[in-house]
Amino acid sequence: MSVAELLATHSSAELTEWIAYEQITGTIGQARDDLLMAVLAATVSNANRGKGRKAKITDFLPKWDRAAGRPRMDWTEMLAAVKTMNRSMGGRDLTKEGQSDGADSGRAPRRARDQQR
Known about the structure:
Blueprint: H1 3-9, H2 12-25, H3 30-47, H4 75-88, H5 112-115
């Protein structure tokens, strides 16, 4: 559901009630599912583990926003990172320049079929 659809089908009062409900009962939706699955995984892990360090729930919680606290990259740094990943996976650079010197104009890569014309 898009934000426009949500606003068209739900009043401000109803959305406010859902926010209050979540603040009282805890997270709802996917964040709650992650927490419940982490509890289950920690329980199973601890039941099947020998003596020693017990697993914590946080050991099994996904960390979705790992970029928090890091400075944002500009587009040239992002492009360089993508080119590095592409090379490490054996990919080819199909941009017009095709140079690894960072002198890319920022245009999207051309497909091989476009270069055959």
